[in-house]
Write a structure and sequence with these properties.
By secondary structure, the chain is of the alpha/beta class. The chain has a single domain, classed as Endonuclease, Chain A, CATH 3.40.960.10. The chain is 40% helix and 14% strand. Helix 3 links the parallel strand 3 and strand 4. Helix 2 packs across helix 4. The radius of gyration is 16 Å and the shape is globular. Pfam families: Vsr. May nick specific sequences that contain T:G mispairs resulting from m5C-deamination. It comes from Azonexus fungiphilus.
């Protein structure tokens, strides 16, 4: 199926989609701050440019939108019915790019946490997020993820 708008219009529309300082990212940053952590944002020198970095602890945190990063099994990650082939290819490429970035960070000795957008949506999970983050950062896990199914403390 061809696009319904010309390439210049599509480019302008897509450029309006924010990639930084999203609401879920700000929720995670506030939770980290409330848990007593200080951090850096969007380190360009690291693979995948993590959303939040705790350099002293070698922890990289990605805040993934459930749709844009194709969160498996999430109700917010439905592929649109129109232009399905385009979206499936686009989202698969996003997932592959995420995997490569995470693998590169892990092989460089970083610990990596993915916080899915759905983990920031409910008030109950937002309230528990500082404690969940503190436990993970202080724990031994090398990689992990939080989503709406995460166990509350």
């Amino acid at each position: 199926m061809t696009d319904v708008v010309d390439p210049a219009t599509r480019s302008r529309m897509m450029s309006g989609i924010g990639g930084r300082n999203t609401k879920p990212e700000i929720v995670v940053r506030k939770a980290l701050f409330a848990a007593g952590f200080r951090f850096r944002l969007h380190r360009k020198d690291l693979p995948g440019r993590p959303d939040v970095v705790l350099p002293g602890r070698r922890v990289a945190v990605f805040v993934h939108g459930c749709f844009w990063h194709a969160h498996p099994g999430c109700r917010y990650a439905k592929v649109p019915a129109s232009r399905r082939e385009f979206w499936e290819a686009k989202l698969a490429a996003n997932v592959e790019r995420d995997r490569r970035a995470i693998d590169a960070l892990l092989s460089s000795g970083w610990r990596v946490l993915v916080v899915w957008e759905c983990a920031t949506r409910s008030a109950e999970l937002r309230e528990a997020l500082p404690e969940l983050l503190r436990r993970w950062i202080d724990g031994p896990e090398v990689s992990g993820e939080f989503c709406s199914d995460s166990t509350l403390p």
